[in-house]
Design goal:
The chain has 310 residues and is an all-alpha fold. It has helices at 17-37, 41-54, 61-73, 85-105, 107-124, 139-146, 149-160, 169-183, 189-198, 200-210, 213-225, 240-247, 252-255, 265-282, 285-298, 300-308. It starts with 16 loop residues before the first helix and ends with a helix.
Length: 310
């Protein structure tokens, strides 16, 4: 971050008094920010105190205090042991500290400054068990907030330690995010399908976090094409994997790697489409006719989309 140099302490002419005072304010604020960027809490405290004495009403005092407190708290490496403490600390970091950092440092510099704080929280949460009643009180989502491939690998490792993680919406969503961040979309399709069947509403909340251009385009086309009126009360995203087979048949090898779920209607229709695509390639028309009939009876909307491309 490029910060203006501190002005001379030489007393200015009377007509420049306001400008001089403003320059002094800026210099003290910038020195405090420099100390924070260097992670020197002692210097930041001293400089903020000087700013408070020189300009008690300065609007940077409160956010600087928030950032100094966060830096001091990061020195605590003790593991979280009390249920809820990790989630509470993460909430404060994201809702209070992060906005203050972004306002004072700018988006890019704030992101780099916050990353070690987020990592420290994840490390302190390493020993916490997963609790479905408070899923965010776990190391995996904290690692995902750090960003980067190494943090994604740590998140995946944390999820892998949860018994039957693939049967629970939150851990499955975390693994989807971690695999996407570490290996890319091609390695994440099967997990996306599993989450769509298990908890489509969770998938809906996870897709924006993936921020994948191709996936976003496919989601928008799905929303435009798919009519959920025939299945009232069911989240339409449960049908997304089946629609993907129709829209992008080349995804078949990846999508069919999805583990079997609870055999819901959307999953059964997906399996019918997998079967139909296989029969087409083998030229087994008699069996294909029967599978298409079953597909039509189970999901007329997807059947119509499937036949349109035939």
């Amino acid at each position: 971050m490029s910060l203006p140099a501190a002005p001379s302490r030489e007393v200015p002419p009377a007509g420049q008094l306001d400008l001089f005072e403003h320059s002094q304010d800026t210099a003290l604020r910038n020195r405090a920010l420099d100390a924070l960027l260097q992670r020197d809490a002692t210097a930041a405290v001293a400089t903020r105190a000087a700013l408070a004495e020189f300009a008690p009403g300065h609007d940077a005092l409160a956010p600087l205090g928030t950032l100094i407190e966060a830096l001091a708290a990061a020195a605590d490496g003790a593991p979280f042991t009390v249920p809820g403490d990790a989630a509470q600390a993460a909430q404060r970091l994201e809702l209070t500290v992060a906005p203050a950092a972004q306002a004072q440092l700018g988006q890019a510099t704030a992101a780099a400054w916050l990353a070690p704080l987020r990592q420290r929280l994840a490390e302190r949460a390493a020993g916490l068990p997963f609790r479905a009643t408070q899923p965010e009180d776990h190391a995996a989502p904290l690692w995902l907030r750090v960003g980067g491939a190494a943090a994604a690998a740590a998140a995946a490792q944390a999820v892998a330690g949860i018994p039957s993680w693939w049967r629970q919406p939150a851990p499955l969503a975390w693994m989807l995010q971690a695999r996407h961040a570490e290996q890319g979309l091609d390695a994440a399709w099967s997990l996306l399908a599993e989450l769509a069947w298990l908890a489509p509403e969770r998938l809906g909340a996870t897709l924006p976090a993936l921020n994948d251009a191709l996936l976003n385009r496919l989601r928008h086309r799905f929303d435009d094409d798919f009519d959920a009126a025939e299945r009232p009360g069911r989240d339409p995203l449960a049908w997304f994997p089946a629609w993907l087979l129709i829209e992008q048949p080349a995804l078949l090898p990846r999508l069919r790697e999805a583990r079997a779920g609870a055999s819901s209607d959307p999953e059964q229709v997906f399996r019918l489409l997998v079967e139909a695509l296989g029969l087409e390639r083998q030229g087994r028309q008699r069996e294909l006719i029967e599978v298409r009939r079953r597909l039509r009876d189970r999901q007329p909307t997807l059947y119509a989309a499937y036949m349109k491309s035939r």
